[in-house]
Amino acid sequence: MSPVERHYTNVCPDYLFVGATWPLIGATFPGAPLTGTSTLTHGTISIVDDDAWSRRGLGDLIQSLGYTARTFASAEEFVESGSIEDTSCLITDLWMPGLSGLQLQSRLRDEGHHIPLIVMTAYPTKNHREQAFAGGATGFLSKPLDEEALVACLARALKE
Questions:
Q1: How far apart are CA 135 and CA 13, in angstroms?
Q2: Domain extent at residue 62
């Protein structure tokens, strides 16, 4: 079977597409064992997504890459959790009930929190991408997530 040509809207360095839900079916990524136990010294990656399947898959992916991951079902849950201060990078869905990802980004900035932020969405638009970057986002990724683009965004976010 030959590879299918794909066009992507992810905004981070260009990389090939790899599904973020592979850990859910027991598959592993080349060069990144799915251990979920090792952690890097970069702190915690917080994930905010109202979709349980996506949230769990992304959490597993982040752990398979060696990071510590915390997941939240809503922006409000994240804000109320007390996890803001120890979050090294925040990955948030754009569209959620309650506060959207862009509203969460704005609220955190207004409260003086400067957490590197990656916005993800299944419905990317130029306007939302521009709003995310204008608000200081490190990356804007389309779902399904491109694992290598996510890794590049995380590396850039953790350097900030």
A1: 20
A2: 39-159
User: Total structural domains in the chain?
Assistant: 1
Q: CATH code at 97?
A: 3.40.50.2300
Q: Which of 80, 82, 127, 85 is nearest to 102 (CA)?
A: 127
Three-state secondary structure readout of 31-51? CECCCCCCCCCCCEEEEECCC
Residue 61's nearest CA partner among 50, 45, 49, 72 is 45
> Which helix (H) or strand (E) element contains residue 9?
none
140: helix, coil or strand? strand
How far is residue 156's CA from residue 90's CA, in Å, rounded to a whole number? 13
Question: Over the stretch 67-122, which tens digit does the pLDDT of each residue have?
Answer: 999 999 999 999 999 999 999 999 999 999 999 999 999 999 999 999 999 999 99
